[in-house]
Amino acid sequence: MPESPDPESLPLAGRRAEMSFLAFDYGVRRVGVASASTLLPAARPLRTLAVGGKARFEAIAALVREWQPDALVVGVPFHPDGAEHENTLRARRFARQLEGRFGVPVHQVDERYSTTDALADGAPDADAGAAVVILEQHLRTLVGGRVDAHA
Fold this sequence. Notes:
The protein is of the alpha/beta class. The protein has a single domain (17-143), classed as YqgF/RNase H-like domain (Nucleotidyltransferase, domain 5), CATH 3.30.420.140. Helix content is 38%, strand content 20%. The chain has four helices and five strands; from the N terminus they run βββαβαβαα. Strands 3-2-1-4-5 form a five-stranded mixed β-sheet, with helices on both faces. The termini are far apart. The relative contact order is 0.22.
């Protein structure tokens, strides 16, 4: 019997009707969180988690239980020229930790300028707004179209 393909590798038409996502704008002190689905592909900010260590992962676990996402998306920062820096490595580690803890696929998205874009769009919470920008960038790769935020 052939293996079932990974839903993320299928064209949108070959996937189930709806996939849901939680996205994270990782930071050492704060993590912005947003949600969206492919049914109504407009990301919305949820909150910013201003806790670290075990408390951070407990808060994320509560969000995963509440939203039951099919996948997670993590913004990975780079210098403007594309070079990696210390926070690049931290964000990638955070993505690996999420995948290990929650057992769902974790997608990494280049998040250069996400906070700048969120602030330019008038986001009242820069971190959650940046998570919206990150998630909408990921959704555009899935649906191949324009995605608008609903704050």
